[in-house]
């Protein structure tokens, strides 16, 4: 209340009630002052509440202001730091072209790895399957001299008689050019595999040959049986020996039975062949041979110049071709 209003009110106060009026005026004045103080206090509290609500939403300006107040750096430094943070966010962003390229390459590597693993599994499976298939077949043996043709004869359980029939049939059906050689190898049911080659010892057992032990031990398990084409088809046998002296001594002991023992392989060519072998020089090598009444060789055996190759033959032309091929070691075209 203005002093002027108060004065006017005082002037209007009744003199008789002067004391009472003054007390009432003072109370009204105190009440008005109190109302003003409360209003000011409420306004101050509202400002504090608004400031408190703004604390939850902080901007870069707020942080900058705080850092400047704390003395933590200059404004320029803070701007640089903020830009560096933005660049880091961009570098790690999925939308970054470089990150997309790296992700794509990583995906390609994963796909390639899966492909390699799958291909390896397929190849291993194929090799296992091939091995299983090959287990039922015989790898063609290397001939001891180069041949022009080859033939497999499969006899599950060979005996002297069925081997003789199979050889006779093959010779009868053979039609190769003159001067050519056909390699004929025999296979039988195996003990550790479905099929196996007939070895030297198994051959001798099959034909029931009375071969001296010294000769059998000196001969390699791999031998070659074949036919040579001239005016007729001439069989031959080739062995490799590890001891010339033992082999030669064993052959001398075997001469009395050799014609009979090898008849299944030479068919009827040895019928009537006597065991009177003679020393003969042929093609510059020493041979042991049986001659007919005309002095022609009808059966014999010879060690080639290397002394490790033994040839049993019934046609000297076949021996000559074997010697030639053994020396040049090339395939006759």
What does this structure look like?
With 333 residues, the protein is of the alpha+beta class. Among the domains are: 3-51, no CATH class; 149-328, no CATH class. It contains eleven helices and nine strands. Strands 1, 2, 3, 4, 5, 6, 7, 8 and 9 form a nine-stranded mixed β-sheet that branches. Strand 1 (149-154), helix 6 and strand 2 (181-189) form a beta-alpha-beta unit. It is rod-shaped and about 185 Å long. It starts with a helix and ends in a 5-residue tail after the last helix.
Descriptive key words:
single chain; 333 residues; alpha+beta; 9-stranded mixed beta sheet; 53% helix; 17% strand
The shape, in one word, is rod-shaped
Main β-sheet description = 9 strands, mixed
What's the pLDDT, averaged over the residues?
79
As a percent range, the share of helical residues equals: 40-55%
Oligomer: single chain
What is the total tally of β strands? Answer: 9
Order of helices and strands: HHHHHEHEEHHEEHHEEEEH
What Rg is obtained from the alpha carbons, in whole angstroms?
59 Å
Uncertain stretches: none
Name the structural class.
alpha+beta
Distance between the termini: 142 Å
């Amino acid at each position: 209340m203005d002093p002027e209003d108060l004065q006017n009110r005082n002037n209007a106060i009744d003199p008789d009630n002067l004391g009472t009026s003054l007390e009432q005026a003072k109370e009204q004045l105190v009440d008005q002052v109190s109302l003003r103080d409360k209003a000011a206090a409420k306004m101050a509290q509202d400002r504090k509440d608004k400031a408190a609500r703004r604390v939850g939403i902080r901007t870069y300006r707020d942080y900058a202001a705080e850092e400047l107040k704390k003395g933590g750096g200059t404004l320029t430094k803070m701007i640089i730091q903020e830009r560096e943070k933005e660049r880091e966010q961009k570098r790690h962003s999925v939308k970054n072209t470089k990150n997309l390229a790296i992700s794509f390459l990583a995906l390609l590597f994963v796909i390639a790895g899966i492909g390699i693993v799958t291909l390896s599994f397929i190849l291993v499976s194929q090799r296992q399957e091939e091995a299983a298939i090959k287990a039922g077949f015989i790898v063609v043996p290397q001939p001891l001299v180069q041949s022009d043709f080859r033939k497999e004869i499969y006899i599950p359980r060979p005996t002297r008689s069925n081997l003789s029939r199979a050889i006779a049939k093959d010779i009868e059906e053979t039609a190769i050019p003159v001067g050519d050689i056909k390699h004929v190898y025999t296979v039988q049911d195996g003990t550790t595999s479905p099929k196996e080659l007939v070895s030297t010892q198994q051959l001798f057992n099959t034909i029931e040959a009375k071969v001296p032990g010294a000769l059998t031990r000196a001969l390699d398990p791999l031998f070659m049986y074949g036919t040579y084409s001239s005016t007729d088809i001439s069989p031959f046998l080739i062995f490799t020996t590890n001891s010339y002296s033992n082999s030669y001594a064993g052959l001398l002991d075997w001469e009395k039975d050799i014609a009979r023992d090898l008849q299944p392989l030479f068919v009827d060519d040895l019928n009537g062949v006597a065991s009177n072998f003679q020393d003969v020089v042929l093609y510059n090598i020493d041979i042991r041979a049986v001659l007919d009444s005309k002095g022609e060789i009808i059966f014999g055996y010879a060690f080639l110049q290397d002394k490790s190759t033994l040839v049993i033959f019934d046609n000297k032309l076949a021996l000559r071709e074997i010697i030639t091929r053994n020396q040049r070691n090339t395939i006759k075209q």
